[in-house]
Amino acid sequence: MAKGIIHYEVGEQVDLFLLIKSATKGIASNGKPFLTLMLQDKSGDIEAKLWDVSPDDEERYAPECIVKVVGDIHNYRGKLQLRIRSIRPAHPGDAVRVDDFLETAPLAREEMKAKVMEYIFAMENPNIQRITRYLLKKYEKPFFEYPAATKNHHEFISGLAYHVVSMLELAAALVRLYPSLNKDLLYAGVILHDLGKVIELSGPVSAAYTLEGNLLGHISIMVSEISKAAEQLGIQGEEVVILQHLVLAHHGKAEWGSPKPPLVKEAEVLHYIDNLDAKMMMIDRALEKVKPGEFTERIFALDNRSFYKPAFLAVSTSEKAGKEK
Q1: Is the pLDDT of residue 217 over 90?
Q2: CATH code given to domain 5-100
Q3: Residue 53 reports pLDDT greater than 70
Q4: Angle made by CA atoms 40, 256, 148, in degrees to the nearest 5
Q5: Where is average pLDDT lowest: 3-7, 106-110, 135-139?
Q6: Which DSSP helix (H) or strand (E) runs through 17?
Q7: Main-chain phi, psi angles of 227, to 5 degrees
């Protein structure tokens, strides 16, 4: 079985079928157009440049297109990049399908659905529970299919639900440690905070921003959805406003995209949980691409830092595995 694209090293030759995740047009210094392609398989993705493209090339090499690529891996400004030697669209006779290249969440959808429902049933406030159940049911299919983002974290099939499940388990641990936290508010905030992304993004494959996503954003979308759900269910009161505030404040600061800073304790904790889970995913995915004793590529969303993969941890892990045998 061929290894995943993220496991190739500098200097290695590549001869693979890959899926175009995104294609962005640019103009080179010589005035000629080029495409920046994000190419992916189940292991992850890698950037590649396609130079001197024609209008036909722009149509031919579009998102969700499977291509056969021959090239090599090189290091460009601290990041691995695939240098294309030749590229062509896949033919019907190649017997490859889009599903063969899609990275998916490590948990099955039914398992994630059961976990989310478990937390909803744990809610004691009927208004909070009813609003949360109503909105989850309304958007159930895309919620369990969509990624949590187009890049940076949980940008894979069912990534949104996996992000929420991870955050719910973090929330439950914090509720046990800090009993003064209201679990209903915190669990509802976790489930609803990014639910607007099913409208903000175009779909589970090669996700891009929709018109609503570009003009409104998932935060504004979900504040409106909570209001409509409460009206539909005949629910009035403070809970509705607090749920809206949790969504509004979950990015923490205005410069990070939050219309309001957290002004309720559970909103503050929601922001920390969201931030922690997203950053852990970014770091783990970057570390997966390097060997023990090496630094990762720079992670833009983490102040452009490179993270070191300690060599002694790999030795400890291998020794532990040997003892368990």
Answers
A1: yes
A2: 2.40.50.140
A3: yes
A4: 35
A5: 3-7
A6: strand 13-27
A7: -60, -45
Residue pLDDT, tens place only, 176-196: 999 999 999 999 999 999 999
Instruction: Report the alpha-carbon distance of residue 66 to residue 68 in Å, rounded.
Output: 7
Q: What are phi and psi of 294, to 5 degrees?
A: -120, 160
- SS3 assignment, position 129: helix
Q: Considering only CA atoms, which of 9, 1, 46 is closest in space to residue 290?
A: 9
CATH 1.10.3210 segments of the chain? 109-281
62 CB neighbour count, 10 Å cutoff: 15
The answer, as to whether pTM is greater than 0.70, is: yes
89 or 6, higher pLDDT: 89
Element (H, E) at 226: helix 217-233
Q: Which of 243, 135, 229, 235 shows the shortest CA–CA distance to 187?
A: 243
CATH 1.10.3210, domain 109-281, yes or no: yes
* DSSP state for residue 302 in the 8-state scheme: G
Structure token pair of residue 283:
């770091």
The helix (H) or strand (E) run that includes residue 35 is strand 33-41
Span 25-42, average pLDDT: 92
DSSP classification of residue 294: -
Instruction: Tell me: pLDDT of 317 over 60.
Output: no
What is the pLDDT averaged over residues 313-323? Answer: 59
Q: Which of 45-49, 51-55, 60-64, 202-206 has the lowest mean pLDDT?
A: 202-206
**First-to-last C-alpha distance (Å) of the chain:** 25
**In terms of C-beta distances under 8 Å and separation of at least 24 residues, what long-range contacts does 243-246 make, across chains too?**
243/128, 243/131, 243/185, 243/188, 243/189, 243/192, 246/185, 246/188, 246/189, 246/192, 246/193, 246/270
Nearest to 168 by CA among 221, 138, 123: 123
